[in-house]
Sequence to fold (193 residues):
Amino acid sequence: MVAACSGGGSDAGEAASGESAVTDSSSVSSDSSSTTGGSTTTVPAGPVVPEDAPPIVNTGDDFEAIYRSLNEFINWLAANPSPTVEMIDVIYSPRGPAYELQRTQLAGNIAGGFHSAGRIQEVGAVEDRGPREGPGGSVIYDLIVNLTFPVVDYLDSEEQVVRTRDAAFESRFLISLLQDEGRWRIGDSVELI
Fold:
């Protein structure tokens, strides 16, 4: 179940996920170029992103925009009824502690045919905490993010409600972004108490 939380037992870590069946789980995309604001950025190969997915902004140095883009993909993935587990690679870095939990939760949703009937989380205020050195000289970029988790139904493959998050709540998270092959992805997400 794709969400911002890499630990704990709150609904934040129990949100449903999914993805369009357009994606072949064995596929990877080739390098591509995109133009933004007059400059061109080459994005290294990664998981194939279906055409109906929101655009991914995961390069550059506007870290709030990068996280907001990844969050849009989280919401899109959660609402899609036909995911493949490889799509977690768009959002989470395999080098980060959140990766295995999110991959396992998504695999469970796939096995059960579960997805959300709406958005599972909304980004509020974002506080830039800046870069720090990670293992092996890698760069980790930290943000403090306020997330709201709205009331939402979770559906099975027959589109029947199987669970409802019946109370909205807010929480703050330390989001750590890792750069892999030129792309920023979530390495960890820790709820601040």
